[in-house]
Amino acid sequence: MTALQDASQLQLDRLRRAWRGSALPGFLRWWGGELSALLPVRWRQAFAGGERWYVLERGEGAWQLRRAGESLSIADAYDTDTVDHRAALLARALGECDPADRRIALLMPAAQVLRRRLVLPVAARDNLRQVVGYDIDRQTPFRAEDIHFGVRELGEGGPEGRFVAELAATPRASLDPLLDELTALRVAPDRVDVPLGYQLAGVDLLPPTRAPRRVDRRRRLNLALVAAIVLLLLGAMAAWLHNRQVALDTMRADVEAMQSDAQRVKALRQRLMDSAGASGFLVRRKSESPSILPVLDELTHRLPDDTWLERFTLNATGQIGFQGQSPQAARLIDALKGARSIGEPSFQGTIQADPTSGKERFYMQAKALMPKPDAAAPAKATSAPAPASASTKAAAVSTAPKEDARAHEAR
Length: 411
What we know:
The protein is α+β, with helices and mostly antiparallel strands.
């Protein structure tokens, strides 16, 4: 467990050195100073925080407590008073500051502290105290077990691959009695330093084993606030992503609904096009197919009154076939010439005489002609060679089956 603590402490020391060596702390201090200058004085006093250093110095028969950077003492604890009285006096003087911000430095006389400048390799920066502790017998006239020492890195530039540090050491016999006396007064110093005017020199001779362990409640609160901010930020991001996903799902549902509607419209359009194509096909076929009424009307007007038909056919290709009897069947070709709806008349087979009726039996073929659109004149405009009424020809056609039956009976 100790090795793990030492490794974590080493990593923390590296991080602290990297932070102090960067330009960010100076920028933040400058930025904070500029922002605080914009606040009213009362606000600055109300929100003032940070470390406030107090200096304890052993004088002639008394402990003197003052603020760092000031010359006047705020409390004097004389040796003639009892320990409880002196402890209460110091506690009352130190009570003006929040314990989380209060820092106490024990000042040692400069004559009792040995200070030396060291030039060390950069590799010693990661574990500076341990490296200097191995060489303390050579750097000081004391043995390592007889002194308390502290080492710090100076900001001065050194030779390439090296850096400048400062070693401060004092005999245990001078420091330990003072620390024991402060322990009796219920005062735990955060640093053992050397005076530099009314300020602190910056060295630390306090043994690590006697350093106070502080519970920084503000740091815990700040960490909790940072954790809460991170959680809220993650929650906001998750809510944003959820809202985006809901909107995306809604858009997808709308798109799918539109796609289904589009498919239905496409199917209806296809059905409409198919229906239009089918109806157009029927109209086209109807327009292209020969009509039977003009053909019958043409035959009615052009065939002689003494000629009747027993059979009439008209297929989809326009082929006409009709069979009947006429006194002079050979003249029917001339009668059908010039017809508008009948063309290419010809006999099929030979003309035979019917002994029952005394007429000639014939079978003719022709081709139905489609009238042109610009020649939509009525069929009556064409003059027939033999005058006959439509009713007479219709009667002849209607009586054709009866005559046909009589002819079969005669045969």
